[in-house]
Automatic annotation (TrEMBL):
Residues 102-392 form the SAM-dependent MTase RsmB/NOP-type domain. The keyword Methyltransferase applies. GO terms for biological process: RNA methylation. It comes from Croceicoccus marinus. CDD domains: AdoMet_MTases. InterPro entries: MeTrfase_RsmB-F_NOP2_cat, MeTrfase_RsmB-F_NOP2_dom, RCMT, SAM-dependent_MTases_sf. S-adenosyl-L-methionine binds at residues 233, 281. PANTHER family: NOP2 YEAST -RELATED NOL1/NOP2/FMU SUN DOMAIN-CONTAINING (PTHR22807), RIBOSOMAL RNA SMALL SUBUNIT METHYLTRANSFERASE B-RELATED (PTHR22807:SF53). This is RNA methyltransferase. Belongs to the class I-like SAM-binding methyltransferase superfamily. RsmB/NOP family. Gene3D superfamilies: Vaccinia Virus protein VP39. Keywords: Methyltransferase, RNA-binding, S-adenosyl-L-methionine, Transferase.
Length: 392
């Protein structure tokens, strides 16, 4: 493909991503994967170049652009050599019109950038939300140790004791260590947040929003595969992905429970007042994960944040009911908005006199309210807020 044809292909994919973002359709990575599969003539170098252009353009536009072409013109403002590809050639984009406007830059739609700024995420802190994410793995302590494990590519040790950082795009899924469950892909910040649970062997721990089990597996390793680990979610598909991962990791203590949204406690009655710890890795706006999903900032709405905050609060209330006296509640969100993080947790503990905020002994990140904040800019991790409370 010519450079111009690659740019045109990227513009077409961007059009699909923009419509999907507006209509709540498929995420960008799926639109890109499907779009590239349909372009059989594109070789591996073309695909890489097109992907690079698409994600470069997504990162370059703050608000959702009107068209893929406007998004690409915005990228051309930052990479002027790209303008040469607008040459009107047969497979390339039409020449740039005299008054043609590029899409607007910025970190996010204005309203969202303002809310981040109100949570002290502005300037370089905000820009770093759109950096390219590295690839972090966690060495599964049930099967290996970070010091002794030999991998095809040596990783850089992370602050999290089992974490290693590899260059982005390292094909770990093909490695024997991955297939054998010796390593899992997990952001270093996520690994640190799991440590806040202080999971011990023999305990009863509930992972209330387990998804496909990223944090569940880290908890199983911390528990040395001894005790009871209940992994819950309302999403059947995500939860069903946990079982093969747990088997690969050798985590035998995990029991999955599918929850009914709005009636979560129905399936958890047996655990009321019994848990040593409950992890609430709550659904959130994901403002801390834009490095991986930069187009997700085009999907968030004020209404959605309000809906999520209400759900987060309710999940914390449920967690409080599952804890035994002296048990630990750990709240985690991969958002940097205080309304989902420090402010929400403060509001919750203020409303629940039987839950007292305490600090997990982890020397990472910075205090935010009664919890801890990790950011891409300062910690090189995804953005997280996590906090802990003890049941009296
Ligand atoms: C941040 S994700 C969890 C990620 C997972 N813990 C991990 O480390 O990979 C939040 C999860 O909450 C789930 N969820 C949404 N509503 C829920 C509810 N009412 N009860 C329990 N889980 C819920 C979502 O399906 C999603 O899987």
């Amino acid at each position: 493909m010519t450079p111009a044809a690659r740019v045109q292909a990227a513009i077409e994919l961007l059009d699909g991503i923009i419509s999907a973002a507006r209509e709540g359709g498929a995420p960008a990575d799926r639109v890109v994967a499907d779009g590239l599969r349909a372009r059989r003539y594109a070789g591996s170098k073309d695909r890489r170049a097109i992907r690079e252009l698409v994600y470069g353009a997504i990162r370059a536009c703050g608000p959702v652009p009107d068209t893929g072409r406007a998004a690409m013109l915005r990228l051309a403002e930052l990479q002027p050599e790209l303008a040469e590809s607008f040459d009107g050639s047969s497979y390339g984009p039409a020449s740039i019109g005299a008054n043609e406007k590029a899409a607007q830059g910025g970190v996010a739609p204005a309203w969202l950038a303002e809310r981040l700024a109100a949570s002290d995420i502005a300037g370089e802190e905000a820009e770093a939300l759109l950096d390219r994410a590295p690839l972090d793995i966690r060495v599964n302590a049930l099967k290996a140790t970070r010091d002794a494990l030999e991998l095809p590519v040596a990783g850089e040790p992370l602050l999290a004791p089992h974490g290693l950082r590899l260059p982005a795009g390292t094909p770990v899924e093909g490695w024997d260590a991955y297939k054998g469950g010796l390593i899992e892909v997990q952001d270093g910040g996520s690994q640190l947040a799991c440590m806040a649970v202080g999971a011990q062997p023999g305990e009863t721990i509930i992972d209330l929003c387990a998804g496909a089990g990223g944090k569940t597996l880290a908890l199983a390793a911390a528990m040395e595969n001894a005790g009871t680990l209940v992994a819950c979610d309302t999403n059947r598909q995500r939860l069903s992905n946990l079982r093969p991962r747990a088997e690969r990791a050798g985590a035998d203590i995990v029991t999955e429970i599918l929850l009914n949204p709005g009636r979560e406690l129905d399936a958890l009655d047996a655990w009321r007042g019994k848990a040593d710890a409950v992890l609430v890795d709550a659904p959130c706006s994901g403002t801390g994960t834009w490095r991986r999903n930069p187009e997700s900032r085009w999907r968030i709405t004020p209404d959605e944040i309000e809906r999520l905050s209400a759900l987060q609060f309710r999940l914390l209330e449920i967690a409080g009911q599952l804890l035994r006296p002296g048990g630990r509640l750990v709240y985690v969100v991969c958002s940097l908005l205080d309304e989902e993080g420090a402010a929400l947790f403060g509001r919750f503990t203020a409303a629940c006199p039987d839950l007292l905020a305490d600090s997990p002994a982890i020397s990472a990140g910075r205090s935010r309210g009664s919890g801890t904040r990790l950011t891409p800019y300062r910690d090189g991790t995804d953005g997280f807020f996590f906090a802990r409370a003890a049941k009296v």
